[in-house]
């Protein structure tokens, strides 16, 4: 904008700064609140009025990973003293750690679902970005009859409502035994992200000067060697940004996961809300699970900050 | 457009003779992706097109009977389905309008001399990167009538957000606005920063009022990119499922995707749900078409 000149403009700018700060605080408040809840003692999570000031503790995160059951009788003093710190935290919450017959601590379902999310998101990202990069290079460097139509076709597959695609996919998966399997979700997420990856990568590869490859070809490289040794290194930033986007999309996906999985391959997004169930939910543990799940995305958002515009507009708008 | 600038390697040159030909590389790179998308997106759609003309129920072993257009006819004559359309339309209008107002407004504020602009922008963009399902979950905590922070912060007592049939849809829309205004803001910021500065300087010399400058310079120049944001958000809002499904189970928030989900996976009316899916699909493809037209327009500038 034009430099600030008159006193009136200066006041206006100060007003804008204050408003921006206010808006930022309002936008971040929900995220702060869920994070705060994840560090609250259980009895302070759902007080009326809400508790704003409290002494943070990590017990919700400990409980998140342990299978627990209601304590019928308080533990004896020796039992309590002999228990490790994390077990004492569970005792403090009026619960006990569930152990197997051989006395081993039983984990909750959370780490399993978290791992499912990781496996499925990473595998589908690798596939989508790998295939997407090749296809983007093909469209960027070679003449393809009806190129715009093909690109539109690829984009249109991404625009289908998930529930619409899920119905026939569900029927097909049932036939092939792919419901509630990792492979099933990986295929779905790859298909879902592939079009995105093609569009984004095409933008990145279009920006790499063709002279680089042509120089390599003159130097005796084959087209394939030129692609792997010249184009791919040049496109590394773009590939990384595309991969992070695909990871986030797969990590966050809910509808397919809800329909296609129920236990073995269930990812975190359908699992975390299902914990509410009936009765009084322990919001501190749910919040802990939520925060842990959102954390990777928050970190990635900061890493991606210069590519967000491009990614969110399918590579159409660049700075 | 890229096709125009392509200079092809001379097929007679030495480089072209080494290794795989350009043609086979192109096919090798492109065809697997196209095949993959056809097998996992287009084929299932053809499969469900077939079922949309039958009375198939996935919960039974009975064979599917061909019923012609009956599913479509019944759906389009069903006042409840029309009600789902109305709910969806209401949701789209409220949430997209909210996102445009908040998003464009914040972008205008940010388009000034703001310290730490980069950091603030990134922080503001955080909500749209999060999982809608998990966002829906924790907004349930925020909306709670007794221990929710929203009622406490706004002094609303025990106001019902999600359990109130008249309010629930707006509550979902508010959460959606919180999540996706940043998207409109991001695109608007790109549009605003592309407005040539000399236009503002010229307007200042002509002593144009700030309202005049806004409506005659800023808005027309940002409009195409803002339009992209609006079409994109309209499409997404039309498809919405996660937020509304997690936040409430009110009949007044039953948008089309939720109706479709229930019809397909709870009532197991597979044939009928395939028909409804097709009706939705036609609307989405129409919006996508408009979207791509605008994208190309903006790219050409």
Most strands sheet of chain A: 2 strands, antiparallel
- Quick one: CATH superfamily of the largest domain in chain A? MetI-like
* Count of separate DSSP helical elements of chain B: 14
CATH top level of the largest domain in chain B is Mainly Alpha
Number of self-contained structural domains of chain B: 2
- Mean pLDDT across the residues of chain B is 89
Net shape of chain A: globular
Strand tally of chain A? 2
Determine the CATH topology of the largest domain in chain A: MetI-like fold
Structural category of chain B: mainly alpha
Counting H and I runs of at least 4 residues, what is the number of helices of chain A?
Answer: 16
The end-to-end span of chain A amounts to 17 Å
Mean pLDDT of chain A: 91
Strand coverage percent of chain A: under 5%
Main location (chain B): membrane
Subcellular location (chain B): Cell membrane
Protein name (chain B): ABC transporter permease subunit
Family (chain B): Belongs to the binding-protein-dependent transport system permease family.
Report on the architecture of this protein.
The complex is a heterodimer of chains A (319) and B (301). With 319 residues, chain A is mainly α. Chain A folds into 2 domains: 59-97, no CATH class; 110-312, MetI-like fold, CATH 1.10.3720.10. In chain A, 68% of the residues lie in helices and 2% in strands. Chain A has helices spanning 7-37, 42-45, 59-65, 77-82, 85-92, 110-141, 147-159, 162-176, 182-206, 210-218, 223-234, 236-252, 255-260, 268-274, 283-303, 308-312, and strands at residues 68-70, 95-97. Chain A has a two-stranded antiparallel ribbon with strand order 1-2. Chain A starts with 6 loop residues before the first helix and ends in a 7-residue tail after the last helix. Chain B folds into 2 domains: 2-51, no CATH class; 79-300, MetI-like (MetI-like fold). The longest helix of chain B is centred in the N-terminal third of the chain and has 32 residues, at 79-110. Chain B is globular and about 75 Å long. The termini of chain B are close together. Chains A and B meet through helix 1, helix 6, helix 7, helix 8 and helix 9 of A and helix 3, helix 5, helix 6, helix 7 and helix 9 of B.
């Amino acid at each position: 904008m034009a430099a600030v000149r008159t006193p009136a403009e200066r006041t206006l700018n100060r007003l804008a700064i204050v408003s921006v700060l206010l808006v930022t605080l309002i936008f971040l408040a929900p995220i702060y609140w869920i994070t705060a809840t994840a560090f609250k003692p259980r009895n302070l999570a759902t007080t009326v009025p809400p508790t704003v000031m409290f002494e943070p503790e990590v017990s919700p995160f400990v409980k998140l990973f342990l299978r627990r059951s209601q304590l019928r009788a308080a533990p004896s003093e020796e039992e309590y003293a002999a228990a490790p710190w994390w077990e004492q935290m569970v005792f403090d919450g009026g619960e006990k750690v569930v152990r197997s017959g051989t006395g081993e601590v039983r984990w909750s379902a959370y780490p399993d679902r978290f791992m499912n999310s990781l496996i499925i998101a990473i595998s589908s990202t690798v596939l989508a970005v790998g295939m997407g990069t090749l296809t983007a290079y093909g469209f960027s460097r070679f003449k393809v009859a009806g190129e715009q139509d093909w690109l539109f076709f690829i984009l249109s597959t991404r625009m289908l409502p998930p529930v619409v695609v899920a119905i026939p996919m569900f029927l097909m998966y049932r036939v092939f035994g792919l419901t509630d399997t990792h492979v099933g979700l990986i295929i779905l997420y790859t298909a879902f992200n592939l079009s995105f990856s093609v569009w984004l990568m095409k933008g990145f590869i279009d920006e790499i000067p063709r002279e680089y490859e042509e120089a390599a070809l003159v130097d005796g490289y084959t087209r394939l060697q030129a692609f792997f040794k010249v184009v791919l290194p040049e496109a590394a930033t773009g590939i990384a940004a595309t991969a992070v986007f695909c990871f986030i999309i797969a990590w966050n996906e809910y509808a397919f996961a809800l329909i296609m999985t129920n236990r073995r391959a269930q990812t975190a997004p359908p699992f975390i809300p299902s914990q509410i169930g009936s009765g009084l939910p322990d919001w501190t543990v749910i919040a802990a699970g939520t925060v842990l799940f959102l954390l990777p995305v928050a970190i990635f958002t900061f890493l991606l900050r210069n590519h967000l515009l491009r990614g969110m507009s399918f590579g159409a708008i660049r700075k | 457009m890229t096709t125009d600038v392509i200079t092809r390697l001379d097929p007679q040159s030495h480089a072209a003779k080494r290794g795989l030909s350009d043609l086979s590389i192109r096919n090798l790179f492109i065809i697997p992706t196209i095949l993959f998308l056809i097998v996992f997106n287009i084929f299932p759609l053809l499969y469900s097109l077939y079922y949309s003309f039958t009375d198939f129920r996935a919960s039974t072993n009975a064979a599917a009977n061909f019923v012609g257009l009956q599913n479509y006819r019944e759906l389009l004559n069903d006042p409840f389905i029309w009600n789902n359309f109305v709910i969806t339309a209401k949701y789209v209008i409220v949430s997209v309008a909210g996102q445009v107002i908040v998003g464009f407004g914040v972008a205008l504020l940010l388009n000034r001399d703001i310290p730490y602009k980069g950091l603030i922008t990134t922080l503001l963009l955080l909500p749209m990167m999060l999982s809608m399902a998990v966002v829906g979950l924790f907004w349930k905590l925020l909306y709670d009538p007794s221990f929710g922070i929203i009622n406490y912060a706004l002094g609303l007592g025990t106001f019902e957000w999600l359990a109130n049939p008249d309010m629930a849809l707006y509550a979902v829309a508010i959460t959606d606005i919180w999540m996706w205004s940043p998207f409109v803001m991001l695109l608007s910021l790109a549009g605003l920063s592309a407005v040539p500065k000399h236009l503002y300087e010229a307007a200042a010399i002509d002593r144009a009022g700030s309202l005049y400058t806004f409506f005659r310079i800023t808005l027309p120049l940002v409009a195409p990119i803002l339009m992209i944001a609006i079409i994109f958000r309209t499409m997404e809002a039309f498809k919405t499922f996660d937020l509304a499904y997690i936040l409430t189970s009110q009949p007044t928030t039953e948008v089309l995707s939720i109706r479709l989900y229930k019809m397909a996976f709870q009532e197991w009316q597979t044939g009928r749900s395939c028909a409804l899916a097709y009706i939705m699909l036609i609307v989405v493809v129409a919006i996508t078409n408009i979207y791509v037209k605008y994208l190309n327009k903006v790219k050409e500038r």
